[in-house]
């Protein structure tokens, strides 16, 4: 009698905390604002951000974390969330201008979270493109990843995974803003 009761309690603890919703909208980060100021001599526009061709559409709408799922804010897409994150950083740096002839666009290529014991992992990737007056100056796929200690208890592990996954978006923008090839492309006449 004791063993089934203990097993039921363990299952409840492991599966608890499964109710999730949309990701939090993030503010600008100091590191990315400084990187944007250093990377872009003149303000730039932000163009379309979409899911890369050939990938399942569901990958752009939600991501499973154990028994729950996380969605992009406002019922949008993760590609759109990446665009908003980039716009937030550029705006805070004073480097966003919708009328600029130089445009940054992108395609979401990777999005995953795995929460096995003992370590959890998250990954976000995108192919970024910089164009000026229709000419491609830069095109490169970049990724941001994170690894953290997992927890058996779902009520702890799931919110932690959601927070760490959400933080990958500004981290990926930072990878872009600090990429020497990206910076060189923006400095070309």
TrEMBL record:
UniProt KW keywords: Signal
Signal peptide: 1-24
Identification of the protein by name: DUF4136 domain-containing protein
Species the sequence originates in: Caulobacter mirabilis
């Amino acid at each position: 009698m004791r063993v089934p009761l203990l097993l039921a309690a363990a299952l409840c603890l492991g599966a608890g905390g499964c109710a999730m919703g949309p990701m939090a909208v993030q503010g600008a980060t100091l590191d990315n604002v400084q990187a944007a100021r250093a990377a872009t001599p003149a303000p730039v526009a932000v163009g379309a951000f979409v899911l890369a061709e050939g990938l399942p559409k569901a990958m752009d709408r939600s991501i499973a974390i154990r028994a729950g799922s996380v969605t992009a804010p406002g019922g949008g897409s993760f590609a759109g969330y990446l665009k908003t994150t980039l716009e937030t950083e550029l705006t805070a740096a004073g480097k966003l201008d919708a009328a600029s002839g130089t445009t940054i666009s992108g395609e979401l290529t990777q999005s995953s979270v795995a929460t096995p014991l003992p370590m959890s992992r998250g990954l976000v990737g995108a192919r970024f493109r910089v164009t000026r007056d229709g000419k491609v100056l830069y095109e490169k796929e970049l990724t941001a990843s994170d690894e953290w200690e997992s927890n058996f208890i779902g009520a702890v592990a799931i919110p932690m995974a959601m927070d760490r996954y959400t933080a990958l978006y500004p981290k990926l923008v930072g990878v872009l803003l600090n990429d020497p090839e990206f910076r060189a492309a923006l400095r070309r006449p």
